[in-house]
Amino acid sequence: MPKIKTRSSAAKRFSFTANKKVVYKKQGLRHILLKKSTKRKRHLRMAGILSSAETKRVQRMLPNG
């Protein structure tokens, strides 16, 4: 049976925790930062955890994750 290829775009965006939860970097912290509050920017720095429905889709894209 052939090897299963990993979607490299997903591999760059998502990673797994020890309990197989999917972690991602939140969007909105690249530019136009002056109008965003300090609290909002601070929360955007934290990693996000995907919902269970989205986790299944990401696990299909990253078979070795």
Summarize the topology:
Layout: H1 8-13, E1 14-16, E2 22-25, H2 38-45, E3 47-49, H3 52-61
Antiparallel strand pairs: 1-2, 2-3
Question: Can you give a write-up of this model?
Answer:
The structure is a single chain. The two termini are 19 Å apart. Strands 1-2-3 form a three-stranded antiparallel β-sheet. The protein is built from three helices and three strands. A hairpin with a 5-residue loop joins strand 1 (14-16) and strand 2. The protein has one domain: Irregular (Factor Xa Inhibitor). It has 65 residues and is α+β, with helices and mostly antiparallel strands. It is elongated and about 55 Å long.
In short:
Helix content is 37%, strand content 15%.
Low-confidence stretches: none
User: How far is it from the N-terminal to the C-terminal residue, by CA?
Assistant: 19 Å
Order of helices and strands: HEEHEH
The first-level CATH class is given as Few Secondary Structures
Number of domains: 1
CATH architecture: Irregular
- The number of E-state strands comes to 3
Q: How helical, in percent, are the residues?
A: 25-40%
Looking at the structure, the CATH topology is Factor Xa Inhibitor
Strand line-up across the major sheet? 1-2-3
User: Structural class from helices and strands?
Assistant: alpha+beta
Strand content: 15-25%
Task: Characterize the overall form.
Answer: elongated
Count of DSSP-assigned helices:
3
Largest sheet: 3 strands, antiparallel
The Rg value, from CA coordinates, equals: 15 Å
* Average of per-residue pLDDT values: 95
